[in-house]
Specification:
The protein is α+β, with helices and mostly antiparallel strands. It has two helices and nine strands.
Length: 132
């Protein structure tokens, strides 16, 4: 079994989670991505969020939230994605950049249009009372 190791930024506002959809895709994901060689979680998360959403995460506010695993969307059975999630404050204005075509606010009612790992994370956030 193989595993895709990714990092994600949980940004919650008004009990909704910020989600992103890549160009040419129909599924929403939590913003973030894979680390490059030699990067720490923090460095990779800061870089990925800057590339995708044009904002700067504030390093001193980055806080581990949890790690979640699920079948990777669009990959053969048994290929798992491990999503290590962080909370953080930011500076700048969130807007689509790089491969991101759309950003939206998600709540528990949007599960059908989310990736498998996003569904698991959203269920956890709902159980914690963080999203509706």
């Amino acid at each position: 079994m193989s595993e895709i190791d990714k990092l994600a930024w949980l940004y919650i506002q008004n009990k909704q989670l910020l989600g992103a959809r890549s160009k040419g895709k129909n599924t929403y994901y939590i913003p973030g991505g894979k680390r490059e060689a030699g990067e720490s979680d923090e460095q990779a998360l800061i870089r990925e969020i800057k590339e995708e959403l044009s904002v700067d995460l504030i390093p001193a506010t980055i806080e581990y939230a949890g790690t979640f695993k699920a079948q990777a969307d669009g990959k053969p059975e048994g290929v798992m994605v491990k999503m290590t999630c962080y909370l953080a404050e930011f500076t700048g204005k969130i807007k689509e950049d790089a491969e991101i075509e759309e950003i939206t606010w998600l709540n528990h009612h949007d599960l059908a249009k989310c990736s498998q790992v996003t569904k698991i994370i959203m269920a956890w956030l709902k159980s914690e009372g963080k999203i509706e």
